[in-house]
Amino acid sequence: LHDALPISDTTSEYWKGVDLSPKPPVLPLPVKEERAKFLLPDGYSMEAVLTEPKIEQPAAISFDGNGRMYVLELRSYMLTADSKGTLEPVSGISRWEDRDNDGVYEKGGLFVDSLVFPRFVLPYGPNSILTMESNADIVYKFTDTDLDGKSDKKEFFTDNFGRAGNVEHQQAFLYWGMDNWLYSTVNAFRVRETEYGVIRESTASNHAQWGITHDDDGKLWFQGGASGVPSYFQFPVHYGDYVVKDQFAPGFQVPWGAAIKIADLQPGMGAVRQPDGSLNQVTGSAGDDIYRGDRLPSSLYGEYFYGEPVARIVRQIHADIKDGISTLHNVYQKDSSEFIRSTDPLFRPVDMATAPDGTMYIVDMYHGIIQEGEWTPVGSYLRAKIEQYQLDKVIGLGRIWRLTHKDKERDKTKPRMYDEPSADLVKHLEHPNGWWRDMAQQILVQRKDKTVTDALVKLVQGNSKIESKFNALWALEGIGTLDSVLVKSLLNDSNPRMRKMALWLSESLYKSVVKSF
């Protein structure tokens, strides 16, 4: 309703103190100059791994078993202040490789083109992905059969999956959970492919918009959107919709972005921190990652990260767990700061991921407007700010950054999991980087290779780290050789994490017995 207030209504708090005098336009910076605008903790640095003109308006990334990076490119997003052309079939999903292993992705291009605002990209086999378009209801599998780098085969995967409406409010982020089910935001169900076809089960509502990740124990963490905070994370989402009060520490909703001066904030002047023009309360969030890599300081391992693109920040969140309830804290709140900030008003962090090289990648849409046209009508405060700084002119760009630390070099081992025998994939389950463990598990499940059963059981019963045992157990579940005797033995394990995991695994055994009658 505030957006409908005319500029002449200066009595409103919405307009109080607003400066609409002519200003120089905000102009995009070269990649090196944007890099200099980042404000990072000591020892950290940002390296560009893929930028425009190779990609346009990236919104999410995902890696396949050979380390190739798929990029969801929303090329139709906010090309004008009125969001004209949003549903034109000009977006796509590209795939990229770092052939010379110099840390920069130089080889690639569009894997699927001519898409209508695609909702997600999930690698699903050696040369396949799953995706769907906006205002659609079907998830399709796209495959490159002739290995030319572009899909040439389109297959039905599942339906009854989407909903129509504003592109900010539709389902997104199809995600492979540790339990071998596929989850998405918005949808209160999960799906998985079986010998009987793609099946579905109901879950709680995840209240999420843009982001899903999981921790070492397989619990999913969903990211909100307009709320500006994580949405569902207390319990496994398939157990029910439990409301937990006071799950955010005091002050959690207050962001501490750098001074950007331009105050282009949809809620109006009431959301502006004076005099620096930054955001004073979270209003949007996008992308998330529980960092589980091995090439950043160990203090980051297991921490939750997400982007607030309106505030131009990436937050580091620590969960304080007491009596089974998590209270989330902004790690840098005590310093009135954030993990990553930028003084460049075009920095728009919309996704992040633990990478195969052990670091964390951050997707920067590098865009002028980060609010869909429904909330930028003529006469609104945000529209006035867009026109004042000509933010609608900054389109078609995008940068993907690697976060590194001076004390650890990135892992230059190139994944080749699709080319490896299953026995070697079992070895990857003991890798210190959680991405390697997860991907090895997923490929074993996709292969349904029962010959590795003994090796997986040996790993579970041996002296490996408990995180490796978790992936091995779910690999057994996924290939159909999880044994009830093994699971019962784990119910008596001395580690409560393992006992909890055994209970979760037992659900699959119960269902398989019921199905057999």
Structural account:
This protein is α+β, with helices and mostly antiparallel strands and 517 residues long. Helices cover 17% and strands 25% of the residues. The chain is built from eight helices and 26 strands. The strands form seven sheets. Strands 1, 19, 20, 21, 22 and 23 form a six-stranded antiparallel beta sheet that branches. Strand 20 and strand 21 form a beta hairpin. Helix 3 runs antiparallel to helix 4. It is globular.
Low-confidence stretches: 1-11
Instruction: Tell me the distance between the termini.
Output: 57 Å
Structural class: alpha+beta
Biggest pleated-sheet summary:
6 strands, antiparallel
Q: Say how many strands there are.
A: 26
Overall pLDDT metric: 94
Oligomer state equals single chain
In DSSP terms (H or I, runs of 4 or more residues), the helix count works out at 8
Label the overall shape: globular
Radius of gyration: 23 Å
Beta-strand portion reads 15-25%
**Helical coverage, percent range:** 10-25%
What is the fold's blueprint, element by element?
Elements (H helix, E strand, L loop, with lengths): L30 H5 L2 E2 L4 E8 L6 E6 L5 E5 L17 E7 L9 E9 L6 E2 L4 E4 L7 E5 L9 E6 L16 E2 L5 E2 L5 E6 L2 E6 L9 E3 L5 E3 L49 E2 L4 E2 L6 E5 L13 E5 L4 E10 L2 E6 L9 E3 L6 E6 L5 E5 L16 H9 L9 E7 L16 H7 L5 H14 L5 H9 L4 H14 L4 H7 L5 H21 L1
Antiparallel strand pairs: 1-23, 2-26, 3-4, 4-5, 5-6, 7-8, 8-9, 9-10, 11-12, 12-13, 13-14, 15-16, 17-18, 19-20, 20-21, 21-22, 21-23, 24-25, 25-26
Helix pairs in contact: 3-4, 4-6, 5-6, 6-8, 7-8
